[in-house]
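call fold(seq) -> tokens
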Amino acid sequence: MYLAEFSALAAALCWSCGGLFSTTPARTLGAVRFNRLRLIIVSLTLIVMSLFGGGWQTLNAEAFWVLSLSSIIGILIGDTLMFATLKRLGPRRTGIIFGLLSALCQAISLIIARPIMATGVDALSASALRVGISALALIAILFFNRPKDRHLSTPLTGKLLIQTGVSGIIGMALGVTFLLFALTEGEVGLVSTLSATSPIFILPILWIATRERPASGAWVGAFLAVFGIACIFLKMPLV
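ret:
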């Protein structure tokens, strides 16, 4: 049924939509502050959902430490780099930059998490653990590195809070859960390749949202990427 492949593509689609909602709050609040608030919202949501689902029993001590390391590399470092870029360049250019700055962190985190997920760990509970660990790490960073003048911080409005929450629920709660589910069923190389296609999805999303057609070069690049993904998905030889 290609559940792993479709789950990886669903993760990429969620990250593209989440990135679109992230632009304004990331620029206004700053990358670290935005990511911290986003992670807190998502971790609380996932923890409540996983408690009702009863998947915590699948997490042993080894899974805890491995998924924690995967979280620090893939979410704490990778996402903060991505949103710092988003703040400077916007969503249209971030998809090129995302591949350079965050793909390495994402790939490493996937390689680390794959053996644990293959043992049957509940994807929702694993997602809650990964997001929660990164949220705690960012809170600790805030505690030890408090701003000297809190009045310089941009006030958190209801609109910014909603935008941050929507970005987190779509881009992280759904995206990371789809990704971890894909890892339980598929090969890490295929999953990481398909989940890295968010720049392809973001082109039509941006076109619809901004009513500005992306440049022709972006479409050519997306076409080549889709072709390569199709070769992998259908197991076609490239030569």
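The longest helix spans residues 61-89.
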